[in-house]
Write a structure and sequence with these properties.
The protein is mostly helical. The protein is 75% helix and 0% strand. It folds into two domains: 401 residues, Growth Hormone, Chain: A (Up-down Bundle), CATH 1.20.1250; 51 residues. The chain contains 18 helices and no strands. Helix 14 packs parallel to helix 16.
C-alpha cells in the first residue's frame, strides 16, 4: 500500500529530473487565466443552481410525489447536506490525487445524478477553490478573484430557479435536472482542457493511501455530520416523539466526538490543528450562523410568496432576480475592502445583512406591496453572502499552510452548505410544532423565519465578539 498511484503525481523534483516544461502552474496569459477563473467559478454557479432546482419548483415536485408539506424542507436540506458533508473529504482527495482530476470527476458525478435522479437532488460537485488559492498569487487580485467566486452564488441560484420554474410550469420539471446534467458535462470537458495540472507536494511514502486520506477521520466525520443533520431534519417530519430521532442525534454527537479525538492522532488530519485557531474559528462561527439563516430565508421566501401570496414559482424567481446584481455589487465592494479594513469589520457587516434580511422576511405583512419588505430583503441578503464567503475563504487561505489548502477550501464549503441544511432542519422543526397540525400554515412559516432571525442574531453576536478580540489584539500590537 505504500507504493500506489498517488506517488505518480508530478513534483518539482520529477520535472527537473526529466528536464520537461509541461503546462504546470499558473496560466501563462491573462486570457487563459480569465478562462480558468470562469471555469472554476462554474462549480459555485452550478452548485447554487442545483440548490434552486430543489426550492423554486418544489410545490410542483411535491404534488407529483404526493408528499406532505412537512416533508418539503427535505428536498433542499438533503441537497445541501450531501454537498456540505462529502465535500469535507474531497479536499484531501484532491491533495492526494490532484485537484484537476477531482474537479472533472465531481462535475461528471454531478451530471450523472442530475440525469438519473431527476426526482431528488442529492449530488455533490467538487468545487476547486483550492486552485484559486494556489495559482492566483497573494495580493489584491487574489482577493478580487475570491470575491468573483462568491459573486456567482446569487446568480447561480437565480439561473437555476428561473429555468427550473419555467420548465416545471411549461413543460416537465425533470427537464431542469437533465439540462443541468448536460451543463455539468460541458464544464467537466472545459475543466479538463483549461485547468492546469498542479505540482503536488510529495507526501510521506511510508503511509498507506488510507492514512493519507485520513480514512478513519473521513468515516467518523461524515457519519457524525450525516446523523446529526438527519435527526434535525427528520424531526421536522416525524417530531422528537419518535425514539430514533433523538437516538440518532446522540449517536451522531458521540461519533463526531470520536472524530475530533482521532484527528489529534493522525499525520494528515481532515481538520488541521490550525483550522480552529485564531481568527479562523471566529470566521467559521460567523459563516455557520449566517449561512444557516440564509437557507431559512430563501426557502421560506418562496414558501410565503407561493403558498400564502399565491405567486407562481416563476414569478417569485422574478422577484428574487435582483439578488444577482446586488450580490455582484457586494462582491466588488468586498474585493476593494479586503486588505484595507480588518476582516472582522467585513464579517460584522455581513452578519448585519443576514439579520436585516431575515427580520424583514419574518415581519412581512401578508398582502403587502412587493416593493416593501420583499424587495428590500432581496437586495440586502446577498451582501451577507458575498461579504462573508470571500473574506472567510481568503482568511483560511492565508492562515493555513500550503499542504492544507485543499482541506481549507473544503472546510469553508462544508460549513456553508452543511449550515444551510442544518438551519432548514431547525426551522422545519419549529414550523412543525407551531403550525397547529398544519391548520395554521402562516403561523408555522412565521415561527420558522423567527428561528432564522435567531440564527442570524447568533452570527451577529459572534461577529461582535470577533470585532472586540481583533480590536484588543491591534491595541496590544501597537503598544
Amino acid at each position: 500500500m505504500a507504493e500506489d498511484s498517488s506517488l505518480s503525481r508530478p513534483t518539482s523534483l520529477d520535472i527537473e529530473a526529466k528536464n520537461e516544461t509541461p503546462d504546470y502552474g499558473p496560466p501563462k496569459t491573462p486570457l487563459r487565466e480569465a478562462i480558468f477563473v470562469i471555469v472554476v467559478c462554474a462549480a459555485q454557479l452550478m452548485t447554487q443552481a442545483g440548490l434552486a432546482l430543489s426550492i423554486a419548483p418544489l410545490q410542483i415536485i411535491s404534488s407529483s410525489f404526493d408528499t406532505t408539506p412537512r416533508e418539503l424542507t427535505w428536498g433542499s436540506a438533503a441537497y445541501s447536506l450531501t454537498v456540505g458533508t462529502f465535500i469535507f473529504v474531497s479536499g484531501r482527495l484532491g491533495d492526494v490525487y490532484g485537484h484537476k482530476l477531482l474537479f472533472v470527476i465531481g462535475f461528471l458525478w454531478f451530471a450523472l445524478w442530475s440525469l438519473l435522479g431527476g426526482y431528488r437532488p442529492c449530488t455533490s460537485s467538487s468545487k476547486c477553490r483550492c486552485y484559486l488559492r494556489k495559482i492566483i498569487p497573494p495580493g489584491r487580485r487574489k482577493g478580487m478573484v475570491f470575491c468573483l467566486f462568491g459573486a456567482v452564488a446569487p446568480g447561480g441560484f437565480t439561473l437555476g430557479a428561473t429555468f427550473s420554474s419555467l420548465l416545471a410550469e411549461r413543460l416537465w420539471w425533470p427537464w431542469g435536472y437533465w439540462i443541468l446534467a448536460i451543463a455539468c458535462v460541458m464544464f467537466a470537458i472545459l475543466g479538463y482542457y483549461v485547468i492546469p495540472t498542479m505540482i503536488q507536494e510529495p507526501l510521506r511514502p511510508d503511509l498507506s493511501t488510507f492514512d493519507r486520506l485520513d480514512g478513519w477521520g473521513a468515516i467518523t466525520g461524515v457519519s457524525g455530520l450525516i446523523l446529526i443533520n438527519f435527526a434535525w431534519n427528520q424531526a421536522a417530519v416525524v417530531g422528537w416523539e419518535a425514539p430514533y430521532t433523538y437516538a440518532l442525534l446522540i449517536v451522531g454527537i458521540l461519533i463526531l466526538g470520536l472524530f475530533l479525538f482521532l484527528e489529534g492522532k493522525t499525520a494528515y488530519p481532515l481538520l488541521p490543528r490550525t483550522a480552529l485557531k485564531g481568527e479562523v474559528g471566529w470566521v467559521l462561527g460567523c459563516i455557520a450562523a449566517g449561512w444557516s439563516s440564509f437557507g431559512v430565508l430563501v426557502f421560506y421566501y418562496y414558501q410565503i410568496l407561493e403558498n400564502i401570496e399565491g405567486n407562481s414559482g416563476l414569478l417569485v424567481t422574478a422577484k428574487w432576480a435582483g439578488a444577482s446584481a446586488s450580490g455582484a455589487c457586494a462582491a466588488v465592494v468586498t474585493g476593494l475592502l479586503l486588505g484595507r479594513i480588518p476582516a472582522s469589520i467585513i464579517m460584522f457587516i455581513a452578519m448585519l445583512a443576514f439579520a436585516a434580511g431575515q427580520a424583514l422576511l419574518a415581519s412581512i405583512p401578508i398582502g403587502q406591496i412587493y416593493w416593501a419588505n420583499a424587495f428590500v430583503l432581496m437586495l440586502v441578503t446577498p451582501w451577507g453572502m458575498d461579504m462573508s464567503f470571500p473574506s472567510g475563504s481568503l482568511i483560511l487561505s492565508n492562515s493555513m499552510p500550503q499542504k492544507d489548502q485543499g482541506v481549507a477550501g473544503s472546510l469553508v464549503n462544508t460549513v456553508v452548505n452543511y449550515s444551510i441544511s442544518l438551519g432548514l432542519g431547525f426551522a422545519g422543526t419549529v414550523e412543525r410544532y407551531v403550525n397547529d397540525d398544519n391548520k395554521d400554515v402562516l403561523k408555522g412559516y412565521r415561527g420558522a423565519t423567527y428561528m432564522g432571525v435567531g440564527l442570524a442574531g447568533v452570527g451577529t453576536l459572534i461577529a461582535s465578539c470577533f470585532l472586540v478580540v481583533t480590536w484588543k489584539s491591534s491595541r496590544k500590537g501597537s503598544a
